[in-house]
Amino acid sequence: MGVNHSSNPALEMGRPPCFEDGLNKGVWTAHEDEVLGNYVKLHGEGKWVNVAKATGLKRSAKSCRLRWLNYLKPDIKRGNIALDEEDLIIRLHRLLGNRWSLIAKRLPGRTDNEIKNYWHSTLKKKVQESSSNHCKSKKKPMMEPSAESAESLKMDSCLSPNKDVINCTTSSSAHPFPLLFPVDEHPEAFTPVEPSIDGGLGKEIVAEQPPESGDEIFPVNISCGNDALWDSLMDFDVDQLCLSEILEENFASFSEFDSMTVGECGINGCQDDPLPSFSDLG
DNA sequence: AAAATGCTCAACCGCACGGAA
DNA sequence: TTTCCGTGCGGTTGAGCATTT
């Protein structure tokens, strides 16, 4: 963060490049950067396997791609992450989990690697601290749900005899978070889902809705296997919202939802069961 | 002042996915 | 349908710096 990469600080630190299998590994030199930059300017992004052949760079295609995307790309924004960006990262992480590339798409000029590093080095602690404070008044942490809570929710979702699977279209008015995708366009995403124990991607995410009265639990069944739902979530994300818009978004109710549901189990609660790919997003 | 510890961040690794052959 | 290849993503590593003891 805030590092002048044009001067290649790591090299200045004296970290030598490593040569292995005929390929350079480790820190990029200024000359390599220049060669790669020139190549991309001429030929555009992609075809990374050709870079080494065409330029003589002793770098793997992956390495070239990473270097370009993370450092050489002209619109890369360097420097400290602003408070609003930080806030956005936290919100998006709450919503998307460790989908760094998706989060990065919402922060123009920031890379997934940068955000990921920033999260692990800074934000994770902040969030944990705030959630531990939060937990003094609320019984469970907002973030990084425990396996226990996730497990308990799976149990709720799968085994509770009283469980009703709520159709989101009909429960939206009472929904604790704003619907971020148009129901009309994705009715299939809101059809009731039979509870099931599924070892694969079909595992459900079940979020407890705040009971309107009493302690009854009304799980909202969000099936991970329901592509349509995830498409819908992706629709929410697809290049529609940028920093300012998201920050202006009223997240109050959503945060409330997070603190009670998703934050405890929801999306992240499925971490041992990877979410469906968002790779076709954007 | 020196050692120990923690932090930052660039880069690598392995896996998954999608398209082409 | 299967295999191969290129690409993208998230997790992890490791070197150097900063801070603490």
From TrEMBL:
Principal subcellular localisation of the protein: nucleus
A GO CC annotation given for this chain: nucleus
Keywords: Activator, DNA-binding, Nucleus, Repeat, Transcription, Transcription regulation
Annotated GO biological process: cell differentiation; regulation of DNA-templated transcription
Origin: domain of life: Eukaryota
CDD domains named in the record: SANT (cd00167)
InterPro entries: Homeodomain-like_sf, Myb_dom, Myb_TF_plants, SANT/Myb
UniProt keyword Transit peptide present: no
Stretch forming the signal peptide: none
A Pfam family: Myb_DNA-binding
Subcellular location: Nucleus
The Myb-like domain, residue ranges: 20-72, 73-123
Residues annotated as domain HTH myb-type: 20-72, 73-127
A GO MF term: transcription cis-regulatory region binding
Protein name (database record): Uncharacterized protein
